[in-house]
Amino acid sequence: MRLLHWLAPVLSIVLISHAYSTVHAQGYPPAGLQSGMIQPVSYNPAGFPGFSQNTQALPAPVQPGFFQAAAGNYGYPTPPGIPTNAGPEAPLNAFPQMTPFEKMFQQHRVDKNGLWTYRGSNAGKKYFLSMEALFARYQNPGGALIGNVGTESYLHMVEDELVDATDQDTYDQYNENTGLPYFDQQHFNRIPKLNAPGVRLRWGWTNDDDSGFEVTGWWITQANSSWSAIENSTHKPNPANQGIMDILLSPPNYLDPAGTGVVSSIPGVTTAEVNTVLQNELMNLGGLPLDDGTLNGVTVPYDLDFRVKSISQAWGTNATWMSTPIVDKKSLKVRGLAGARYMQVREGFSFVGRDSGLLYSDATNIAGIRPDLKLFSKPTGTDENQDGIVDNAGVVEDDSTGGGTTGTSTAFFAAPVDPVTGQAVQPYTTWVNSSVQTHLAGPEVGFQFDLGGDKFKIWGQTKVGIMANQEQIKLNGDNVGMGIRADPDDVDRPKALIDPTPGNPNPNAFSSTQNHSHVSPLFEQSIFMEMAIFDKVPVLKRMKMLEEAKFKVGYTYIVAGEIARPYDSIRWQGMPTRGLFPSIEVDRQSWSVGTWSVGIDWLY
After folding, report:
1. Is the pLDDT of residue 1 over 50?
2. Around 186, how many Cα atoms within 13 Å sit in the side-chain half-sphere?
3. Cβ distance 322 to 206 under 8 Å?
4. Which domains does the chain have, with CATH numbers?
5. d(CA 586, CA 437)
6. How far is CA 495 from the centre of its chain?
7. Distance of CA 23 to the CA centre of its chain
8. DSSP SS3 for 579
9. Percentage of the chain with pLDDT > 90?
10. What is the spatial distance between Cα 355 and Cα 301, in angstroms, rounded to a whole number?
11. 160 versus 535: which is more confidently predicted?
């Protein structure tokens, strides 16, 4: 301890040196004797020889174990009193003995101006309990590409075929106008925000010295967010056509496998009607870029469905010890924190793409099947040729001449045929599921600040930790490859998918699992505001359970590093005929969740 002023100790020494008082360890007994007390023998020194009657009586010697009464204003003390061990019935005074009830917490310290300060408390532990509703937002997948990075686009892949079927001007309009997609590659930022509700419980206590302990547990429900290319397409399917489409897309294939573009007979439906239905129902949706072992790869077009879905869920618990205040001002306290945490994060995504297996082009210009080409009108959202179909499949709408009918109303649809098996390509569905389950556990440290008083307070916690990370990654799917390619002898356009057989109905399916352990850093920042407002609200102020309660709002942000995310941990390969399937390729990124909270905090 350091005393900052020399005058205080000097004056204290002077006062002590001049002070004198008589201290008794026990007060005096009452004048009257009680039952069981022993009366001592009287003592009169005047009766001894050598003493005269006028001689003043000398004080009696005090026998061991006896009280001695205090002297009066004049003369010697009175004769000895009763013995202290006279019996259990002898009365005793509490003062100046210490009371068992005065076990108060005390703090004594010298503040900055050199004076002693004192703080005492006899309250003991103060317990708290809070219940909060959470409104969370998980970190989105980000702008990662859905598919293989570096693969050429579908537009560039079919550049020659598109120019041959139309003209260079049509290709240039697609290539230069990025607002008009042509089976474009998609990114995960298409997926809407991942929002979900949750709940948090917090319980603990603070001691008289403002140290304490708390246990917190929180749980956020699973967020499901999906995006479909159909919703954003200018070309919408017509529900009235679904009956015919169900027949066309179900085996056996009703499109002539000879490649003449002639549709076989469907009872009650003409060839022209089928042609019109296909123009309306096949859509320019999206492309999945893949590494198929070739130099530039392939982007697989999907004309029936293209959608992705993302899910996220997290929960956790932590125990935290709070130190005595490092900074202790009138309205500001800062305390150190140390504890342990466990947290679990589950993420997953799925991709679904459906393709008709058809190649199509304008019937006036077609000279047979053009490999890989699915010809579409520019997706402008208008019906340029006024045929009742917006952005036709297999027909190039063009009103540049002013007549509005420069395209043809007839398209050429054909299913490519495998020259080895003689089987036409059937409609197929590509699907991929990827999931990661992450367990985080480890120590954390930080600090907590409290600003304000009992009626209104702003407080928050900052924590950092090093977590042991145990993760499990799963990947499975089927039919990942360029399904509309059917020539195994063509080096540039090899067949990708294996034909199913009765013995192996899913030859293109794949599945894999990996488990990893490593270390992940973690950071958490929270800030809360507590207000004693229930005593101001009618009806609520009469509820006994809210007498010691406070209204609480806040925000908490948790971010963990080195987390394997399902969107980034895939190697997008697709050529089952050559043994290339999607596989797990771990790519760790950061993961985070932010939560707004509203709740009630009780003190008891």
Report:
1. no
2. 26
3. yes
4. 126-147+185-226+310-355+433-603 (2.40.128.100)
5. 13
6. 44
7. 67
8. coil
9. 43
10. 7
11. 160
